Amino acid sequence: MIRLRSCKIGPAVLIALLLSLVNTLIILVYLGPLNFKNDVANSLPSAYMSVSSFAQAPKANVKTNSPLVQHTKEPEIQQISVVNQNDNHKIDFPTVVKTSDKDSGNASKVEVFVDWSDKLNSPKKQEDSLDHAFSKLKFNRNLMSMVGRSPVKPVDIVIGIPTVKRDTTDYISSTLRHLVKYLNENETKQCHIVVFSANFDLGPNDRTVNFIKNEFANEVAAGLIEVIKPDISFYPKLDNLPALWKDKPDRVKWRSKQCIDYALLFAYCRKLGRYYLQLEDDISVSQTYFREMKNFIQARGRSKWSNLQFGTSGFIGMLFKTSDLGRLALFVKMYYWIFPVDILFRHYNDVHLYGNSPKDIYRPALFRHLGRESSLKGQTRRVEGGLKKFEPRPNKRRYVDATNPNAFISTNIQVFESNTIDGPYRSSNLGYFWGKNVKLNDFVVLEFMKELTLTRIVFESGSDFAPVDLMTECKLETTDSSKAGNCNEQGYKLLSSSASSGKIDSGTVELPNVKCVKMTITTLNVDERGNSRWLLIREIAVWSQ
Q1: How much is the average pLDDT of 334-349?
Q2: DSSP character string of 117-180
Q3: Which residues are registered as beta bridge partners of 227?
């Protein structure tokens, strides 16, 4: 006979259960139903389950000795679509052309003008249903305003730039000059820049205001630039927070304040425009950034996306629909002490928004991080791959007669910065592919959108500024349309298996019904220590009929 022992639930266990229940109710009430996809619930940090409310910061300086667990996994395959035959660089923003009338056999052209706010943003009813939750985001707009004014009507793109005092360097002046300089007269009417001087001390904030009033008087008067400061009442407890991930107390406070800075900036800007672009104060800016962003928004059309990424790392260059900013601000304010703001967003994006596909990443990047001095006192940023020098994109193609039909291009080679695999294949807006940590049997796959007759294909590697980043031995293979259910599966036919001076060329061939071409690394290019060198592909050329 089995005897069951009675068990009493102690007060501590009961309190923990109640806190967990309250946390669950907060998520359901404030953030609405969560749509989990692809088992992303399993990827949520366990720390989420221990937070009772963002209105109550932790009371004790609870420390954990558990390191942040790092999982080793194979590099993901990055796939990017390249449409060369129908490149459209229209500046007129949102005209869409449809063809219809199939029954009569006469295709008629109809111009449809798309309203951004109605078609691309989430329905207004969705936001109205959260008004009770947005009361947690209350702030005093008049108290925050320092110079300039908010737009009377929503503009196309609002740009948010938080800036804080640094000991030896000022970055905001250069960043603002370039953002303003690269806008034409029409674009200035479609844009609004909010500079958030996020210092608690009045001195640095006043210096920022005086500088902007002197240097950008016309832009302030025209309503292009606005400067705001923190509403201290918006900020929860920032001292004696749990030292998660073995962060030092000063770093915990710094990143936690940064989260609240962003939440306040999101809340301030969410009704000023249709889209919101997040920047930092220490970046470089592409000369055509505004036009290229608008064209990319138009190209993404009505597809579901949570953000479009125009930068290289972190939060720099992320563009959101302003209808999503309220929910994001709530989430960041709730978990401000657990993770840095960019990691919080990625968890929120996976669970509550739509997730992001490679199609939502714009390459080459329009914004690049430059600052070495962090806003965290005494810390300098380490630039990734400091020995590698970024070079401008190539001016023209070497093989001007190549057709380069529309294709999806993928690789499992780890990309360096924004030098993605689509660059050497595009007919315009050329770029390099620059990869690191190259391994044996790494590959590049071209999956053509339509089957074709292949007559030649060339991969060229290396450049004047990276002369040793070459292919040594590799092979080219093809599959026909009958075997192309998955271009990464077996069933390839060998086309060529040699490389000379960093170039592999199939020569003249005539292969009908080709759907996929695969280039595979068969011998590593190594340095004198036996380490694999990086790989720079400067051009991929395809000829077809």
Answers
A1: 87
A2: HHHTSPPHHHHHTTHHHHGGG---HHHHEEES---SS-EEEEEEEEE---SS---HHHHHHHHH
A3: 147, 195
For residues 429 and 287, state if they share a domain. Answer: no
Q: Determine phi and psi for 228, rounding to 5 degrees.
A: -130, 165
- 175 and 226 in a single domain? The answer is yes
CB of 470 within 8 A of CB of 530?
no
**Alpha carbon distance 227, 194 (integer Å):** 6
Q: Considering the domain boundaries, does residue 398 fall inside one?
A: no
Residue where one domain finishes, among candidates 369, 384, 418: 369
User: 540 and 457 in one domain?
Assistant: yes
Residues 216 and 322 grouped into a single domain: yes
Q: Does 156 share its domain with 302?
A: yes
* Residue-range definition of the domain harbouring residue 436: 407-544
Contact assessment for residue 446 and residue 544, using Cβ atoms and an 8 Å cutoff: no
**In 3D, which of 427, 186, 394, 196 has the Cα closest to residue 294?**
186
Q: What whole-number percentage of the chain has pLDDT above 90? A: 39
Amino acid letter for position 352 = H
Residue 68: pLDDT band (50, 70, 90) is: very low
Within 8 A by CB and 6+ apart from 372, the residues are 380, 381, 383
State the amino acid at position 197 in one-letter form. S
- 442 in the same domain as 324: no
**Cα Rg of the chain, angstroms:** 26
Instruction: Give me the CATH number covering residue 253.
Output: 3.90.550
- What distance, in Å, lies between the first and last C-alpha atoms of the chain? 82
Q: What's the mean pLDDT in 117-137?
A: 55
Find all residues with CB under 8 Å of 326, minimum gap 6, and list them.
Answer: 127, 130, 133, 134, 137, 266, 267, 270
Question: Contact, 28 vs 21, CB < 8 A?
Answer: no
pTM exceeding 0.85: no
pLDDT tens profile 157-204: 999 999 998 765 677 988 999 999 999 999 999 999 999 999 999 899
Report the alpha-carbon distance of residue 506 to residue 517 in Å, rounded: 11
Residue-wise pLDDT for 236-290, tens only, equals 999 999 888 778 899 899 999 999 999 999 999 999 999 999 999 988 898 889 9
Which DSSP state fits 298?
Answer: H
Instruction: Output the pLDDT for position 66.
Output: 38
CA dist., res. 461 & res. 471, Å (int): 6
Give the rounded distance of the alpha carbon of 276 from its chain centre: 13
